[in-house]
Write a structure and sequence with these properties.
By secondary structure, the chain is α+β, with helices and mostly antiparallel strands. It has helices at 2-13, 31-73, 85-90, and strands at 80-81, 99-107, 114-117, 121-124, 129-137, 144-153, 161-165, 172-174, 179-188, 203-212. The chain has a five-stranded mixed β-sheet with strand order 1-7-9-5-3. A five-stranded mixed β-sheet has the order 4-2-10-6-8, with no helix packed on it. It is flat, with a radius of gyration of 28 Å.
Length: 227
């Protein structure tokens, strides 16, 4: 991707052809002209290096920015992050609408962790907060840092699945043979019951996948599975 940029700068920065030296100065270029070309080449290389750094920075920023957008909009089955504390305190549970929440846990092949939900399912109603737990263990003899992503199925239900507290998208360090419980505090927005698309939905599955955290790690986008 940088090669066309290099050619573009060289075509613009370098003269189309070298001036023909005079007979008396054959094989020698004026000192000022050499310095001018050297300065132009240095400027072109500086622009190219800056463009390369910028593109690398954008590539690493793309996933976090898209992730934040998905969390805010519920796109791709990603649960909505953040909540209005006043809404949580004042919302009215829809008692006649019972929903089963199933929990799923996976680990990427590169991560040597044991990771599982503490409960297979719970029943909630829209407008009511609920608490669930996952458990992770590092059975190896070395510390490992993991980071998780999540999604919600059906995908359209993601916009109503609000997490008040969770462990996703944050690095979790487990020392050798350490085992920890990870809470997920959430609620289903009462508007879930008013959406005609959710009329036949009585089960929602919350899935987490842990990956080993590495420098430059690119996490999968919500709604996609990676083995």
């Amino acid at each position: 991707m940088l090669l066309p940029l290099v050619r573009h700068f060289l075509r613009r920065r370098l003269p189309a052809r070298l001036p023909t030296p005079s007979r008396g100065a054959k094989g020698r270029r004026p000192e000022s002209q050499q310095e001018q070309w050297r300065s132009r080449n240095k400027t072109a290389l500086t622009y190219i290096a800056a463009a390369g750094v910028g593109m690398v920075g954008l590539s690493y920023a793309a996933v976090p920015l898209y992730r934040l957008y998905c969390q805010a909009s519920g796109l791709g089955g990603s649960a909505v992050a953040g909540h209005d504390s006043e809404q949580v305190e004042t919302m009215t549970p829809v008692k006649e609408r019972v929903i089963k929440i199933s929990f799923n846990a996976d680990t990427h092949a590169s991560l040597q962790w044991s990771f599982r939900p503490q409960q297979s399912e719970i029943h909630v109603v829209p407008g009511e907060t609920a608490l669930a737990f996952y458990r992770a263990k590092n059975p190896t003899n070395k510390p490992i840092i993991g980071i998780s992503t999540y999604n919600v199925v059906p995908f359209d239900a993601g916009q109503y699945f609000n997490k008040i507290q969770c462990f996703c998208f944050e690095e979790q360090r487990l020392n050798p043979h350490e085992e920890v419980d990870m809470p997920v505090f959430f609620y289903i927005d009462p508007e879930f019951d008013e959406d005609p698309r959710m009329a036949r939905v009585d089960t929602i599955t919350l899935s987490y996948t842990f990956f080993e955290a590495k420098e430059g790690q690119k996490l999968p986008l919500p709604g996609y599975s990676y083995n």
